[in-house]
Give the backbone structure.
Amino acid sequence: MVLAQLPRFHLSIFAKSHFSLASSHFINPNPPVKLARTLFSLPPRSNLATVEPTPASSDLEDAPVEISLDRLFIPPETDISGEDPSRLAARILKGSNIVLSRYARDAQVVQADYVKSSVRTEDCPADGLPEFALVGRSNVGKSSLLNSLVKRKRLALTSKKPGKTQCINHFRINDNWYLVDLPGYGYATAPHELKKDWNKFTKDYFLNRSTLVSVFLLVDASIPPKQIDLDYASWLGQNQVPMTMVFTKCDKRKKKKNGGKRPEENIKEFQDLIQGFFETTPPWIMTSSVTNQGRDEILLHMAQLRNYWLKH
Ligand code: GDP
């Protein structure tokens, strides 16, 4: 494994990326997380629990952050060994641990159409196009993210119509791949209800859908990790279902409202808790449907996964 051969040290990156759709932005999943509010102008915080005024999100989005090499997601056929740190920095998607590969192209969405709603895996479209499934707890921001990805205000409403909330909803993008909206989970509080959600609508799809390139597990970064999300991530990891973690609501930064934690802290805690479920660190990315943070980056990541999948 490329990762195993890499020395364990931290990169600290300030420069913007050379990629048109991405700029460098690092977050260190290992404590202490260090962030500076503006480039070079403030010393990094040594303790995120320190009470500080909430900076504007644009400042934070530009902040230099650190990440350890062994926590990067390095796509297949991508070798970063021996790469100069500043060049490597330019290859990492902003607000994520994702290294870009040569497969990252054709990311733009020009067309998006609702295709169908299915209640069984075998009823899903059979044209063999690659797909990405969005899943997350009810209210995590899945519809907002879907609409933001396709730049359509109401497309995801289709899957919120009566009778479709518990379906596998397919949206065809650019006539050559699918975004799939899966039922939200965790709405009911009784354990047997949760189990019903999980078993009936998603397990079979995850295990048997041969064109599924990756699950995108949405996790609310404005609140501390929830057990049900950890269970979900654990199940996917243990069943070796490819997964990308999408942290939503990263614009919600007010400490008091969020139980005293910033999104970066919640994200780090979540990652620490799921680390044992995976052989290598899964890709993760910070998003906000309010500021569109992460939108272009998710599309580039989907593009590189998709183009690699199509070649193999
Ligand atoms: P779903 O149930 O997962 O489809 O969630 P929705 O997309 O319907 O969003 C649930 C609630 O969270 C709504 O009130 C949204 O306005 C809000 N929301 C969704 N995404 C974001 C986000 O990125 N930032 C903030 N602040 N609120 C969001």
Observations:
- Residues 136, 138-144, 184, 248-249, 251-252, 288-290 surround guanosine-5'-diphosphate (CB under 6 Å).
- DSSP finds eight helices and nine strands in the chain.
